[in-house]
Amino acid sequence: MRRHLRGDRAWGVLLLSVLLYEYLAPDDELLSHACDRFRIKHPIITHILILSTAGHLLRRVPAQMDLLTFLVKVRKIKRNW
């Protein structure tokens, strides 16, 4: 039987993962520092990913323009092939 991860549990896993990583990581390897480094090399991609994720989570992006919703639809289509 396949178990599904509920959204509220996913939030808990996400939060605990970030907290644990930030607690254990060296000072120069925090997620925010990694984001800074990525933003220097890929400023447009970084902003698109951050804004897409925030817009999706805040439900501020229409479904037809939501990158994450699009990826879920593609996965479902591929699964049904």
In the residues, how many domains can be counted? 1
Helix content: over 70%
Low-confidence stretches: none
Radius of gyration in whole Å, from Cα?
16 Å
Quantity of strands, as a count:
0
Q: Helix tally?
A: 4
Order of helices and strands: HHHH
Structural class: mainly alpha
Percentage of residues in DSSP E strands: under 5%
Q: Span between N and C termini?
A: 21 Å
Compute the average pLDDT: 91
- Gross morphology is extended
Major pleated sheet: none
What oligomeric arrangement do these chains adopt?
single chain
Polypeptide structure, described:
This protein is 70% helix and 0% strand. The protein has one domain. It is an all-alpha fold and 81 residues long. Helix 2 (31-41) crosses helix 3 (43-57). The chain starts with 6 loop residues before the first helix and ends with a helix. It contains four helices and no strands.
Quick gist of this model?
By secondary structure, the protein is mostly helical. It has helices at 7-24, 31-41, 43-57, 67-79.
